[in-house]
Design goal:
single chain; 232 residues; mainly alpha; three-stranded mixed β-sheet; 50% helix
Amino acid sequence: MNASNSTTPTGERLANTQLKIQWEDINWKTVTDNVNRLQVRITKAVNQGNRHSVKRLQYLLTHSFYAKLLAIKKVTQNKGTRTAGIDGEKWTTPEAKMNAALNLSDKKYKAEPLRRVYIEKYGKKEKRPLSIPTMHDRAMQALYAFALNPVAEATADRASFGFRKNRSTHDACEQAFNCLSKKNSARWVLEGDIKGCFDKCDKISCIMNCQCAVPSIWDDPTKVCENGNVFV
């Protein structure tokens, strides 16, 4: 399948059998290689300080049909795909996945409210809040992440290990050992935690001060931030 551009006009309805065939005919190596190639170009532009090229390449990546296919594949392979958001949708069939890819767009996009549930903490009486986005919002997040990660990885602190691709707890332990094993090393390590950080931080301010934000988010950060919760 030639996945560089969808051959199906937006809004056109295909039979499920056609959608199924299209999805199963995808060459995933070609898809992944094309996404990786654009990400490498973004990283090079960041290292050269060319912000105009960064934004242009981010736009190309977030509108690439290859990237949309890969975003759908990523969110449907995650174990969280078994849990639906407020719309109750689950993309479990090839035809549903292909249809989702054909309709994935940031045009007039605004994130849906999160489905808020509380799950029990192991060995504790208190419960932990869990916010569940819709499948469509998860796919949009994955699509945006493809464009954001090259910038984040090129500019992030080398001693930062949390939520970083190809970095692990072992890498953090090695860094800690290297910092603490010398004669003149610090004798104390301070561990800190911001209470309710992700719930209470000013997300719009973070986006507006973030150099890696993709243009479509930067123009209107409320489309991904001010979506609220639906408690169940």
